[in-house]
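Lecture 7 notes: from sequence to structure.

We start with a single chain of 214 residues. Read the sequence below before looking at the structure.
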Amino acid sequence: MARPERLPQLFSPSLRPPGVGDGEALSSLQALDADTFAFCCTSGRLGLVDTRQKWAPSETAGPGGGRWCAEVRGEAPGPGPSIAGLRSDGRLCLLDPRDLCRPVSARQCPVSTPSPDPELLRVTWAPGLDHCLAVSGFDGTVQVHDVTSWDGTQGRTDPVFTHRGHVFLDGDGAGTAPLVTTHTWHPRKPRTLLSAASDASLHVWDWVDLRTPC
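Now the structure, written as tokens:
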């Protein structure tokens, strides 16, 4: 497994982010185009950087508590929340890149316990659907959420679909349920995902929202 990168190692000394210690690890690093990228620290600190400019990122300090990961939505249809941040206790925040200091909305995903391995936390936007994302890393499931109706009200969010295939055990069901280690969306099939678990299982599966299509 690759060693986690740390912020100061990504830049020359003249570009080192102010206030960032040598021990601040990255949980997410994403190239947005040839000149800009986004980062998320395990502390929850988010930033957008243009490499053509002197270090002056648009960023926000971490909210504190738990460990975080994040993803920026590719090819967003317009202004609005395009960054999703996920905390190890199931907290899911949507942010507008024009104002990273104030989440547009924040909801609690239905997880029974915090992630047993925060390094496996993953939140991903559906590339072929406008307002859907998936989260994993808490147990043997992958949750799909539709954020169309989300607003600033903080509360609980229920997934429109939960993939439980990795939870099914062989034999009499004895033993420890596997943990989903990663998932990803199929690039050309909007409702198809792939997921892998700690028992070496790999699933390719479709999902259907029986209430309100994304």
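Confidence is low (pLDDT under 50) at residues 1-8, 11-16. Keep this in mind for problem set 3.
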